[in-house]
């Protein structure tokens, strides 16, 4: 079996497992008052070059829902891409945690929103009046495996700011976006206007670790901190999430893992060029490759126990292949041989 279904079907980096083992020794202050969490907070301040606060959680869904609830009142509207994970895959978590906010899908090529489409959606909402514009939620790397540049994010951020929207970023694959663009974490977030980032590690070598990062603590701490606790996401042994992040951010493990995954996706994309019956249907910028395959090829993959997901939202015979921090070259090459 070779598994390209998702980066979260993969295991964990040894450095992260070892860090969890080390954190298990002795006792430590509970509920995020421990020294490992304090070190991760400081490490994030250095990495993002600004003051910030962190809220460790164990799922991306929790990070996204808590962030959106913090930025959006129950009568608020949340603008997002029509394929956004918060809209398609989180079973209304953002609506639930915000007490009723409405998600407003916006179409956009390659998983990205444009400033014009965002402005139009804000105008349309004002005309129809089902909700008050409150929040913009962006995903980077996107659900289509593409990445936003800092300039693109800044232009979206300017529209959002001029309309007084809070800005959330779903960074389940933030490392892959940083690795793909070479941009600084600061330029991809708060310098472009992002208020809250769901910074994922689970898909990129952690066991289960996400940080909800708040870039304007003075504005948002009072409403986020209690939500984190009363929703049951403030773990008493938060140090085990923080230990994963400490290892993740040490020696640039997070970027090494993401570069590896992105390079594997490039190897696949380059390898399929010219193969009859195989079409790349989205630009490959991070660690996700969308292919349209003939039925005969799809059957061959199934017989060879090469796993991937059907992706019907990208049309007939569309499939998603995700590479990860530990995808091997020979696995890509076996896939290519069968596609050929
Ligand atoms: C873009 C994106 N955001 C968020 C998540 C949510 O992660 P979790 O399954 O940990 O809630 C995922 C997981 O697939 C994702 O792909």
In short:
The protein is of the alpha/beta class and 340 residues long. 43% of the residues lie in helices and 18% in strands.
List keywords for this structure.
340 residues; four-stranded antiparallel beta sheet; 13 helices; 18% strand; binds pyridoxal-5'-phosphate
Structural account:
With 340 residues, the chain is α/β, with parallel strands linked by helices. Helix content is 43%, strand content 18%. It is built from 13 helices and 13 strands. It has helices at residues 14-23, 35-48, 60-71, 85-88, 93-98, 115-128, 150-162, 174-181, 217-230, 239-249, 253-272, 295-303, 329-339, and strands at 2-3, 53-57, 76-81, 102-106, 132-139, 166-171, 196-200, 210-214, 278-280, 288-293, 306-307, 309-310, 318-322. It has a seven-stranded mixed β-sheet, sandwiched between helices. A hairpin with a 7-residue loop joins strand 9 and strand 10. Helix 1 (14-23) packs antiparallel against helix 10 (239-249) and helix 8 packs across helix 11. It is globular and about 55 Å long. The model has no long low-confidence stretch (mean pLDDT 97). Residues 8, 59-61, 85, 139, 143, 170, 172, 202 line the site of pyridoxal-5'-phosphate.
Bound molecules: pyridoxal-5'-phosphate
Helix percent reads 40-55%
> What is the H/E order?
EHHEHEHHEHEHEHEEHHHEEHEEEH
Strand percentage lies at 15-25%
Taken from the alpha-carbon principal axes, the silhouette is globular
State the helix count. 13
Instruction: Provide the residue-averaged pLDDT.
Output: 97
- Largest beta-sheet characterization: 7 strands, mixed
How many E-type strands?
13
Strand arrangement, major sheet: 2-8-7-6-5-3-4
State the end-to-end distance: 18 Å
Radius of gyration: 20 Å
Low-pLDDT residue intervals, each spanning 5 or more residues: none
Computed structural class: alpha/beta
